[in-house]
Q: What sequence folds into this?
């Protein structure tokens, strides 16, 4: 089955992925995703009825700990990596009008 | 202090002559005027990591001499190979002095004390640039080091710098790096493999004694194969992923790239620790891997999957791998062919799961907390989109798009959930195989290293090259790759051994026994390294 990716799908996936693609990139993405999905469709040949989806290979359980701060104050070092900083806080673009 | 370090950690984009002047030692020339120092430099580089640590302990070599030798080699080779994104020369010499003192005081006695190491650029190193070979992290200075890196520091290793890789470890050639391609030391027209290509090339090109890589779908083993070095992906959960910048969290594992199996065991032993900071870290008591360096495979049951020798496998690779199996048989192993099954479903399963996890993991790169932010934008969402679109390369965007799609409502069950079910079937197929065999033997890749530029033109073709490596990530298994020959063009051929979960020791024992039978594999440009080294090699009968 050949997967045809519509313009709407690419728009929608672009919103989910938070990516802004140029016209050319969109065409390429449609082609690439179509051929990848054609390939992934191979999995439908396998009967997986009754098979439990495996997210982790070992039967590990959630790891809990007490909510105690163990690291020191790294605010200055952390903020040094921020593209925008003001008064010891991350500076972000205006979010509400 | 941090600011000083920042200038000390020169990104490789700074011309190396400037960065390294002062420690420059000529290692190449017409070979007529070798001085004692030059001869010593060449000799020092020849040692494996474990051998070097022994020489340092015996006071035959100092840590500073080892670091000098490596930087001299880097000066000579880096322009053509480009293994590193960042070099920290100043830091390395400073560290060498500290380590030497501790060795002299008897505080550091381990197998890696004083040994210079390179770290793949997706592992955080405190105060040292960590870019993931991406524009979006071009100026990122971590405030902490990855647990695996800290373990090496505790063992007394000296960090040289950060190695080039495919952007966010997405790729099989190291060509998707935002900072240029790395070249294969055996033939610079060919790729080193990927995504840990910089680490593999640095080991093969003797620009470090060993390196750390990460393996999500073969990213340690395949470049090890292409570059003729030893690479190992341990059982999932053996090495902490804390501080490893995530690609596919359920698949990622850190492991060594090194000169031989002995080094591999020693490095793995040093980095395998239980870490409460990684919730998938497993508490193991059998991490004394060097105990498995035993030359004996009598009774070892080795299975060769027929499915790994079908269409697409290069005939020279097939011959070399089967010859290695024959060698192990002669040493007493029981070698049999069998059908593993489901091999052709591993790639679509892997790319669904890896892309899904990547799309989620890479959401954190939004231009707020660290890294690149676009110049001009209108509002928050436009800033996110422009930052990410300008910051990520094409392969990363391709996988984020695919991952977002397979996780989107309406497609989640058909693609993502389906892949998780097939993953369960693949794990079951391996469980059945390991009920019969101790070790599975096969090639690491269908061909030797492709030429530069050949792979990126057709992503699907590049993905197909991962066929022998990715299923073991899906099943969480350990795998080791070591060289077993060269093709007619002189490019190394990789042998892959796969073990059941937690059976690294069986792999190390089998690999070690094979390596003893094979003898030294050699280095890429021995003939260009001057008389001193040639003489040694002749006398060793390489």
A:
């Amino acid at each position: 089955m050949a997967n045809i990716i519509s313009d709407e799908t690419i728009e929608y996936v672009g919103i989910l992925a938070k990516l802004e693609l140029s016209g050319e990139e969109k065409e390429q993405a449609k082609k690439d995703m179509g051929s990848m999905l054609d390939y992934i469709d191979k999995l439908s040949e396998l009967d997986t009825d009754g098979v439990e989806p495996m997210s982790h290979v070992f039967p590990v359980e959630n790891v809990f700990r007490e909510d105690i701060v163990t690291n020191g104050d790294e605010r200055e070092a952390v903020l040094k990596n921020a593209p925008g900083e003001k008064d010891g806080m991350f500076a972000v673009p205006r979010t509400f009008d | 202090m941090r600011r000083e370090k920042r200038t000390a950690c020169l990104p490789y984009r700074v011309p190396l002559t400037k960065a390294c002047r002062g420690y420059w030692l000529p290692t190449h020339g017409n070979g007529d005027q070798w001085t004692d120092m030059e001869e010593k430099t060449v000799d020092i580089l020849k040692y494996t990591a474990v051998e070097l640590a022994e020489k340092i302990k015996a006071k035959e070599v100092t840590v500073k001499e080892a670091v000098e030798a490596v930087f001299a080699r880097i000066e000579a080779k880096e322009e053509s190979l480009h293994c590193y994104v960042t070099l920290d020369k100043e830091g390395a010499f400073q560290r060498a002095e500290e380590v030497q003192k501790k060795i002299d005081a008897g505080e550091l006695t381990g197998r890696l004390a004083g040994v210079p190491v390179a770290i793949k650029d997706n592992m955080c190193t405190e105060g040292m640039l960590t870019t993931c070979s991406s524009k979006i992290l071009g100026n990122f200075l971590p405030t902490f080091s990855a647990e695996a890196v800290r373990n090496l520091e505790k063992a007394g290793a000296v960090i040289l710098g950060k190695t080039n890789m495919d952007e966010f470890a997405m790729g099989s050639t190291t060509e998707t790096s935002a900072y240029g391609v790395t070249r294969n030391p055996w033939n610079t027209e060919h790729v080193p493999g990927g995504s840990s290509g910089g680490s593999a090339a640095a080991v093969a090109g003797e620009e470090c004694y060993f390196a750390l890589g990460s393996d999500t779908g073969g990213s340690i083993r395949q470049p090890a194969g292409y570059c003729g070095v030893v690479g190992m992906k341990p059982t999932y959960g053996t090495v902490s992923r804390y501080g490893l910048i995530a690609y596919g969290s359920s698949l990622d594992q850190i492991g060594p790239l090194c000169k031989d199996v002995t080094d591999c065991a020693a490095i793995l032993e040093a980095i395998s620790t239980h870490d409460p900071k990684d919730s998938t870290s497993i508490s193991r008591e059998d991490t004394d891997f060097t105990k498995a360096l035993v030359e004996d495979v009598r009774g070892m049951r080795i299975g060769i999957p027929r499915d790994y020798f079908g269409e697409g496998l290069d005939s020279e690779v097939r011959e070399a791998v089967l010859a290695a199996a024959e060698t192990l048989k002669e040493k007493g192993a029981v070698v049999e062919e069998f059908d593993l099954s489901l091999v052709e479903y591993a790639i679509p399963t892997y790319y669904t799961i890896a892309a899904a996890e990547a799309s989620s993991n890479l959401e954190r790169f939004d231009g707020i907390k660290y890294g690149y932010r676009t110049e001009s934008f209108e509002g928050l969402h436009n800033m996110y989109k422009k930052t990410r679109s300008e910051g990520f390369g094409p392969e990363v965007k391709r996988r984020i798009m695919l991952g977002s799609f397979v996780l989107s409502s309406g497609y989640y069950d058909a693609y993502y959930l389906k892949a998780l079910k097939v993953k369960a079937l693949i794990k079951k197929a391996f469980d059945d195989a390991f009920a019969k065999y101790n070790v599975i033997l096969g090639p690491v890749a269908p061909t030797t290293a492709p030429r530069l530029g050949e792979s990126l033109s057709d992503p699907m073709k590049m993905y197909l090259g991962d066929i022998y490596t990715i299923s073991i990530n899906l099943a969480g298994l350990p795998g080791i790759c070591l060289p077993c020959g060269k093709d007619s063009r002189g490019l190394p051929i990789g042998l892959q051994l796969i073990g059941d979960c937690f059976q690294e020791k069986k792999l190390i024992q089998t690999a070690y026994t094979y390596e003893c039978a094979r003898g030294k594999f050699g280095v890429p440009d021995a003939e260009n390294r001057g008389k001193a080294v040639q003489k040694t090699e002749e006398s060793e009968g390489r």
Notes: Helices of chain A lie at 7-17, 23-40, 75-80. The CA atoms of residues 6 and 38 of chain A lie 15 Å apart.
